[in-house]
Amino acid sequence: MFDKNKLEEIRLEKQNWTKNNVEKTISRFPERKESFKTGSNLEVKRLYTPDDIEDLDYNEKLGFPGQYPFTRGVQPTMYRGRLWTMRQYAGFATAEESNKRYKYLLEQGQTGLSVAFDLPTQIGYDSDHPLSEGEVGKVGVAIDSLKDMEILFDGIPLDKVSTSMTINAPASVLLAMYIAVAEKQGVPKGSLRGTIQNDILKEYIARGTYIFPPKASMRLITNIFEYCSKEVPKWNTISISGYHIREAGATAVQEVAFTLADGIAYVEAAIEAGLDVDDFAPRLSFFFNAHNDLLEEVAKFRAARRLWARIMKERFHAKSEKSMMLKFHTQTAGSTLTAQQPDNNIVRVTIQTLAAVLGGTQSLHTNSRDEALALPTEESVRIALRTQQIVAYESGVTETIDPLAGSYYIESLTNKIEEEAMNYIKKIDELGGAIKAIESGYIQKEIQDAAYNYQMEIESGKRIVVGVNKFQIEEEGHKDILRVDPEVERLQREKLKALKEERDNRLVEDVLMKLKEKANTSENLMPYILDAVKAYATLGEICGVLREVFGEYEQSIIL
Amino acid sequence: MDRPIRVLVAKPGLDGHDRGAKVIARALRDAGMEVIYTGLRQTPEQIVQAAIQEDVDVVAMSILSGAHNHLFPKVVNLLREEGVDDVLVIGGGVIPEDDIPKLKEAGIEEIFTPGTSTKDVVEYIKRNVKR
Fold first, then answer.
1. Residue B77 touches chain A, beta carbons under 8 Å
2. Could you give the domains of chain A?
3. Of A31, A90, A250, B76, whose CB has the highest number of CB atoms within 10 Å?
4. Which pTM value belongs to this model?
5. What percent of chain A has pLDDT over 70?
6. Closest approach of A330 to chain B, Cα-based (Å)
């Protein structure tokens, strides 16, 4: 990108500057630290110059927005055309309560819904299961059957909103419920827009809401890919998630590497199931974390886009450009929020919001300041949403595309993250792919080591967390927090009992038997799950049948 | 002390957040303790079984899902029912301050919230272990 002679001049000048200016200064005023590192411990130099990106071929490595390799963004006009979707992850207690919060958020100018389910729902247990005790309605809304889903979206036109659902192991069941609710509203499934997370591999790695072993899980996932490519073509069938991998302690490089390695495993599984790559790949989407190291995060998003485009083109021979585009949702980093001086978290989230936007995200959830204390209050959620709106409408960073491109540091760091992530992916290939690398505990161990290292850096004072290990104050208790009424569990159980008395139980038995029979074949299970859902079979019953056929995953514990 | 302190690090309930539990487990091990980690999704019964079988001195539980008020006391009660009264039971996670007095009353002897240094946990265990 640079003239050879000019580069030589720059190198010479840099040597002179180091000798004449820097060394002199350092002899009198030493730098703050021996070495400087990014938030993820990549070496940071004092200064970046054209010298650091001398081999950067603009057209090959950066190109133009909306064109391969999409380093600069996936749309030709980015935020000049349309801002990102502001999508706050929400849901708690009952379907009725959550429905109210969704309507509130839509009134406040939120542009898409994002449903949080409680843990029993995420693990395929009904609210009356013994393991559900104490967990019903806690981290999200409790959904036992289509009945709850009808209440959840009551009065929300499903042809107008796009809905993201954080659901993985039982994703097919919740998607079927969504389709069924839409049909009742008179909305055809072909026009539904939204995303299911449906990413089981990161559940094994980091998030923990798995049910079935990998083989059966991958089959359910490819069943969804196939079904949606024909019946629900605007639906994003998976959100391949680095978010939780990062939350578990991974570095930025590991986040990119392990997420794309999971992506590779899904593409391979779908191709193996007989699907054409260009039929399903355009509906793959990603989900990343945004941490505090602003510039490293921006480089991370750009590196991820470029690397995925290359993988899809070179490794999987995709032909459609849409298959090569890495579209992603971002959430700010819950793990960076502190229980100490919680209002400081608003500032952290602002930096993280900037990282996501400067990195070209398609949608964003901003965390609330009080999340290290409890579930967020309505006021905290509003501030979090306002943070996005201020960045969107007041900061100016949305007016030109990929504004940090061409920064010597950003480009150099983008190269570095891409290269190191690729090294990890090669290593995972050698281990036999992501599933093998998870079963052996390799990926989990890498993350745990990074998490431990991070904690030790905080404890030794090498890493400063404001309010935690520096600038502490005496604090009063934080009283204004949201609580889920324990009554919710009892109410939910009562609703479930009533449902089981009201519905046509003969029909339920028939549809469940049919599902069990088909689970033993290689047929696509989606139509049978849809039938079961429409007959008001419960989530626990449907997953129970599948548990009988598929068995359950056993975690590999490595410390 | 003639043998290292034995600790069961446990994840009760359905919560999958185990970063904290694993960091604590490793820090306790690095401090010379013997650590058994249960893995995810343990019922209070399973935790108590493991505590008895492994003959531990400490049960350290972690929950970030909000189910602590239900699950922590259940473990303590089950231990008592089994006649175990010399095991130190502690907990950690996203636990609102208001909940802490009640949890302590129920027999969870200390609660560690986000931002706690692993050194403080190590020190606490060393000072309060009962055998």
1. no
2. 4-53 (no CATH), 63-460 (3.20.20.240)
3. A250
4. 0.95
5. 100
6. 19
